[in-house]
Amino acid sequence: MNIAFFLLPKNDVVAVTLDSTLRQTLERMEYHRFTAIPIIGKDGVYVGTITEGDLLWFMKNSGGRVTFENASKFLLKDVPLKMNIKPVSIDADMEDLISLAKVQNFVPVVDDMGRFIGIVRRSQIIEYCERFVMRDVSVPKN
Predict the structure, then answer these.
(1) CA 135 to CA 31: how far, in whole Å?
(2) How crowded is residue 18: how many other Cβ atoms within 10 Å of its Cβ?
(3) What are the CB-based long-range contacts (under 8 Å, 24+) for 60-68?
(4) Which of 3, 5, 51, 138 sees the fewest Cβ atoms within 10 Å?
(5) Three-class SS of residue 21?
(6) What value does the mean pLDDT of the chain take?
């Protein structure tokens, strides 16, 4: 099955850029109740995914230099990403998606130039797999 069928296009995805501040990122994540969001470069290329953990560890390891009060003074490009959330190409197959969805909430999708075009949510992948499981369960076995 073509993964484009499951794609949430970039216009509908909450994302940030490397020039976003920590405060902007935190507020966006809190507002949408997300624990991770994609980072997009100025040229539209997928850069990575920032997680709540990345932000918290950055603040913790700053030696008190970074606080919630001054989070607007720090840019996302200075925050190290702990997880390497890998994207898939738009022509990837479902096996690639399933493999990545085991360890991340969503799978970023890129075109052949590495530009971000959207995400596939883990919940959609699970629903896809559920159809096969339910189909196999409903078939009587002799």
Answers:
(1) 38
(2) 16
(3) 66/22, 68/23, 68/26
(4) 138
(5) strand
(6) 90
Start-to-end CA span in the chain (Å)? 30
Check if the beta carbon of residue 38 is closer than 8 Å to that of residue 86. Answer: no
Give residue-wise pLDDT tens across range 47-75.
999 999 999 999 999 999 999 899 999 99
- CB 81: neighbour CB atoms within 10 A? 16
Beta carbons of 47 and 16 less than 8 angstroms apart? no
Q: Which amino acid belongs to residue 28?
A: R
pTM of the model: 0.85
Show Cβ contacts of residue 113 under 8 Å, excluding neighbours closer than 6 positions.
Answer: 45
d(CA 101, CA 16): 21
Report DSSP letters for 45-64, one per residue: BEEEEEEHHHHHHHHHTTTT
Flag whether pLDDT at 138 surpasses 80.
no
Residues 81 and 78: their CA atoms lie apart, in Å, by 9
- Residue carrying the six token digits 């699970």: 126
Residue type, 123: S
Alpha helices in 5-121 (DSSP H): 22-32, 52-60, 94-101
